Sequence to fold (352 residues):
Amino acid sequence: MSKYPNSCPSEDKIMQLAFRETGLFEGRATRRHLKKCSKCRKLYADYFALYRGLRHVPDLTPPPYVLRCIYKPTTGRNSIFEFARPKIVIPALVLLLAIGIGIRTLHKAPTERKRYSHQEIVQAEKDVHTALTILSHSLHKTNNKIERKNIPLVIKTPIQKSIFETLHYFSNGG
Amino acid sequence: MKTIIIFLLAGLSGVLYAQDSDYLEHPGYIDFRDFLNFNPEDAKTEIEISNPLLSIVADASKDEDQELSSFLKGLKLIKVYSFEIDSNQVRDIKSQIDRIDSKMQKQHWNRFVRVREKDEVTNIYLKSVDKTIVGLTLLSVNCTETVFINIVGHINLDSVSKLGTKFNIPQLDSVKVQ
Fold:
């Protein structure tokens, strides 16, 4: 049985009123009752004093570095949720998409070869021959100079020698 | 976040662009415009053939000249500029070639021919990566003409040796291998 008369509001309601947890109209009846009930008023006064006292208690949240020390061993950096954050997931998806498009495009490249007209190909063949002729001409002159002056041409590797022999082939007109 | 997306889009566009001009980052490529004070439009001869056209030419010449075809097959670019000059320009071009020479040697191009006379200079360079020739450059000037050639790509040594045997190319007596 409650220690208050039946007409008195419950202790929870008085506490909510004291802790400012009731709405404007919700606490109206309780407030009216407090005006005529000394017991409830006393109870309200006690809770209100507690409320005021609690408001002046400094913030008990530990500083961030202490929190980090506490949470780090329990949550851990390798938690799966660490990687599921949007900051990491979105760039990763964009990166995957870009790689996918890049690979697909490169893969498709040979099939999408540009078509050239017969004239363009014939012109390109002429250009290749002109280029090799100019190269040959320059090499031929260079070779003649080397031989005329009897300068021993020193080549460091057999690869260079075979290249020079190939160029010599072009310099003799093939 | 924005930065990451911009970076990725830039990278992607680079990948797409690279398909058309993938020789630009090739170790055997030289951009003569970086070194020379010439306008390519003034060239007597300007040839720039890259892939896929170069591969098509290689395929087209397959029946006529197999070795030439395989020689062209591995190439990515053939670039030739030749300019008509007068004798007053020779000194300036020689100094330009000297500047290129030092830059190319810093980029690990191996100059294996250098002929220098009063009014003439010819330099030939090779670039090799992992014992493979990936580029050839020729810079030449005389009193009437200057020539710049850059051949980019894998120069197939098999086809080189076949060329030598097939056409009975005489060995260069002046060439000594160290």
Observations:
- Chain A touches chain B through 53 residues (CB under 8 Å).
- The helical segments of chain A are 11-18, 28-36, 38-55, 64-75, 80-83, 86-108, 118-148, 158-171.
- Chain A has three domains: 11-55, 64-108, 118-171.
- The beta strands of chain A are 153-155.
